[in-house]
Amino acid sequence: MKSVPKATIMTALAAPALAQTAVDGVNKFAWSENCGWMNWADAGSPAGSQGVGIDGSGRFLSGFIWCENIGWINLGDGSPANGAAYANTAGADFGVNVDVATGDLSGLAWGENVGWINFSGGAVAGGAATAARLSMDSPRRFHGYAWGENIGWINLDVVETGKHVAFKTGSGCDSIDWNNDGLFPDNLDLVDFLAVFGGGACSNDPNCGDLDFNNDGLFPDNEDILAFFRVFGGGPC
User: Fold this and answer.
1) Which residues are registered as beta bridge partners of 145?
2) Are the C-beta atoms of residues 146 and 40 closer than 8 Å to each other?
């Protein structure tokens, strides 16, 4: 990671125009031994207006975590320069990315009072068992650890107390690589979705995704088709 001028970082921090958080109102706390509880849901006024969210196709996070002892932590502005993932090479394009195939987290968050926080759990935490990651099944909850050079480990899933961070049930759409062929996205995802929705077969059988694309528990309905078209076109879920 390059050294980024503070003025550049502050410009980036001032920019986000974020949507209401997708984090569950109860399951919203991570833990830092050195900083205490970290609230992923309630940033902003009204509460939650700048909390943590995930983009419609599940590729990156955005928004703010609030920590009583250290202030705000910024997970990204929701607008990667390439539209798909934060580059994390400059202050104007940093944030936390999600691997849509595995749920593994990577990239950097920024705390004005504590510096950079690394979510590349596989490299930092020592392997898959403790890597920062987002479960692929609903409800989508976070696991593992992030690392801050100045504050140490951040535990995303505090088993001892039962506290963890999870997105609301029904929030966020499935991966737009719906047929899981590694092409992300392509027209065959759309063809397969409509074929399976109509009772047909997946071209990459049995690897197509869930027809409840928008994870609202209604399976299937027209909202799943509408959500698929929105996300396929680059819009929100």
Assistant:
1) 131, 155
2) no
User: Phi/psi at 81 (nearest 5 deg)?
Assistant: -60, -35
Distance of CA 184 to the CA centre of its chain: 17
The helix/strand/coil state of 70 is coil
For residues 172 and 22, is the Cβ–Cβ distance under 8 A?
yes
Helix (H) or strand (E) holding 224: helix 222-232
Residue 218 has a pLDDT of: 61
**Alpha helices per DSSP H over 43-142:** 121-124
Task: Give percent of the chain with pLDDT exceeding 70.
Answer: 83
Residue at 58: amino acid letter: G
Higher-confidence residue: 183 or 216? Answer: 183
Q: Residue 201 has which token pair?
A: 């077969």
* SS3 of residue 8 by DSSP: helix
Give the max Cα distance, the chain: 55
Distance CA 43, CA 22 (A): 12
Q: How far is CA 154 from CA 23, 190, 215, in A?
A: 17, 39, 28
- Share the mean pLDDT of the chain: 83
Here the tokens at position 18 are: 């974020």
List b or e across 187-202, with b for residues whose CB sees 16 or more CB atoms inside 10 angstroms.
Answer: ebbbebbebbbeeeeb
99 CB contacts (<8 Å, ≥6 apart)? 105, 106
Indicate the domain borders of the chain. Answer: 6-167, 187-232
Burial class (CB within 10 angstroms; exposed 0-12, middle 13-18, buried 19+) of 35? buried
